[in-house]
Fold each of these.
Amino acid sequence: MRSIFYKPLISYIIGIFLLVIITGCVLSLLTSEYIILFSVLFVEFIILVLIMLHVFEKYMNPVKMATKTVNELVKGNYRARIHHPAVGSVGELNSKINILARNLSELAIQEQMQEKQLTTVIDNTQSGLVLLDEKGYIHLVNRKFISIFGKTSKDYIGYLYYDVLNNEQIHRTVQQTFLYEENVKESFTQMTDLDKKYIEIVGAPIFNERKLLKGAVLVFYDITELKKLEIMRKDFVANVSHELKTPITSIKGFAETLLDGAMEDDTAKEKFLRIIYEEGNRLQLLIEDLLTLSKLEKDEFRLNITEVKIEELLTDIIPIMKHQADKKHIHLSVIQDPGLLIRADEERLKQVFINLLVNALIYTSEGGEVTLSVNETDNHLHLSVEDTGIGIPEEAIPRIFERFYRVDKARSRNTGGTGLGLAIVKHIVEVHNGKITVESELNRGTTFHVYLPKN
Ligand code: ADP
């Protein structure tokens, strides 16, 4: 850049000097008066100044502008441009600087976009992320991590992991990741304000191009839902085994007693055989209910939707229910709007009516009342089963739809209940996109409401 400016300037000055000497010599030949010499020198000085100004405007100014722009670019302001018109090498230099600035600006925009995308991905991953350097300082935490462990990112970034993460399992994972330089997996529980979370942590080492350990990434998976499902599955298997065990033990026990000689006693024989028959019945009911539930839960389960006439459906089931009610001297009344129609799976719908009515009859004492009402709203078919029975304690209401949940275990088993009736009802209502609610008062009675969309 120096040569661009100085070369023409030096040639200008040499030119002026030559001009001054030649003019002075010529004039001193003509006259020896000093005044003339000084006048000439003065004129030439003016010319020199004008030439200098011209040189400054043409070369010095654009170079100054270029230097200023380059300084801005160095500072990171990629929007800086040179707007000074210049020709020749300086002009070319300026236009190259502008191109460079434009390229830098595009690169910076791309980099910003990539950084934004990366931050969005990191912050929206459904796993907690922590980035550690080789000394154990935290460099990054994402949103999910904050939602699991609380506080803000400022409380973690820049600190040593063991100073801000008070969890033995995390410390062990980091230590083992650094020690063995391979992925390490652990799990632990984390208490939050509301409940307990099950967390799986994976520590993965980070290496540089020379395969030297540069830090680690910790990934935290919230496996609470999976754990809950696993617990539910285990509970279910335990419950089924328990439910099957009771009648089987009873059948086996009475059969053994008969074989051991009770056969000789006719009254005992009949009594034991009746028990075996009833227990067998219970087993059958339980297995049927389990099969129904498993069918309803299958992914490929499809409802057999047809137009169901409620009046006809009730004609099929009410006589059996009336018979049961009569045995307990319960007054069963049916109130239904005429001509009710619904698009539904008839067999499943029947099961909803039966299970709710059977429960109402079981949990209502002799002389009580059970009322079935069916009517329609604008979009829904509404059925309700109301009884004047034992009622359900308030704290038990949210649990009665769980499999095998019983308010009074002994009583329910004695009545032959499988503990699956309401779970099946809820499932059927839900696969029809309907809703079921309960109102109950202890020792006064219970009402179940079912709302099913008409189409
Ligand atoms: P179960 O075969 O034991 O009746 P359900 O799933 O049908 O199983 O019902 C679950 C529990 O809900 C019952 O054990 C009982 O405690 C309670 N329950 C259901 N219906 C009624 C009702 N109409 N009145 C009082 N309690 C009821």
Amino acid sequence: MSATARKKAPNAEDIRARKGGEPLVSLTAYTTPMAQLMDDHCDFVLVGDSVGMVLHGLSSTLGVTMEMMILHGQAVARGLQKAMMVIDMPFASYEEGPAQAFRNAARLMAQTGAGAVKLEGGVEMAETIRFLVKRGIPVMAHIGLTPQSINTLGGYKVQGRDDQAETVLADAHAVADAGAFSVVLEKVPQVLADRITAAIAIPTIGIGASAGCDGQILVVDDMLGFFTAFKPKFVKRYADLGPLAEQAIADYATEVRARSFPAEEHIFADQAPTEGSKA
Ligand code: KIV
């Protein structure tokens, strides 16, 4: 079914059922207007913890808090009617163990209306994923490059090359067996992504992985050209809106300084306001 023909938002089981079917389309969003723009086109929208880098100027996702996720989640929820909303669990909100993860996942879902949470990690997170799913919280897993672990991974490196491949494959099996309804594969070699997609029964969502994945996701500010601090190889710029926005701002500044803005059509100068009248 095409995105525009959809009447209501899919849930986690609808997404799971798309394994091997028409590719799932997904983007991140952090605000109501952007969520509204993608609602007709995406199967699910992720309130990603990338918000910390693309909107808050943080140098990594590690400083993102529960409060930030809830605020942006509520904003995105107001813009969605047809697409499912998934929300990231921020760093340090789930790693202590299943009980901490449940408490924070339940809060994220209750306060934002998200249909599922996403968390990073493979084999080491399987117990937590199982605990959450058994208690009514659908989980999207995230393996390969897990940005919350850059300090132990040694940076934003491709994961799963050569003899690391078996580790990432084991992560994929672990999260699928634990009950995750889908799994993001970030920055893994194409052959490995294809192998994982063939090996597990839940949809794989690629970002820097393979066109053979069951779906794709991109950070919206990357693909629109708003986030320009760096551009990973896996990002395709579908538009270059950052320079367009800067030009518009420069034009405005020039016109204000030249007193050519506001022009006649922007002002209410036909009569002088009398006392007590409104502009
Ligand atoms: O936070 C994020 O944006 C992500 C990616 C998978 C897009 O987790």
